[in-house]
């Protein structure tokens, strides 16, 4: 391919559909994929070509409702000690399942490199995004006044941009008649 190391179709599919790849770990995943592509060599072997063609022709469900027998697949994966059955599932990355059928927090590409440190950091960040609006029990009167004033200011700001109810109803009525 013009002497450029490229990803296989399966690697590209896994990269695009993996729910654990986000903005923070995307560069690391791309670096890892480029290392794999460079180490693979220029010409794919006959076995790699066959497996790529099999993957291209395989049915890939877009949701679990399209999976014909999900329970059978899970039982087959649990019964297989080597993990070969899990690799055969084309929708494994769509589900975000790890080797032990638990939800993955890091991409499979980075799981062997990073250990588990980044998943703990991600969990901490998710917790810090939540803003607790409940008032503390031992709140001082001054902080209570400040909190109430902030809430009132937010509500006043909302009222400034609010569409009056009669205008909103009129717009909905016009939309229905144009359809």
UniProtKB/TrEMBL annotation:
Region (Disordered): 97-179
Basic residues composition-biased segments: 159-179
Biased composition (Acidic residues): 118-127
Organism: Graphocephala atropunctata
Record-given protein name: Uncharacterized protein
InterPro entries: RIO-type_Ser/Thr_kinase (IPR051272)
Listed Gene3D superfamilies: Transferase(Phosphotransferase) domain 1 (1.10.510.10)
Lineage: Eukaryota, Metazoa, Ecdysozoa, Arthropoda, Hexapoda
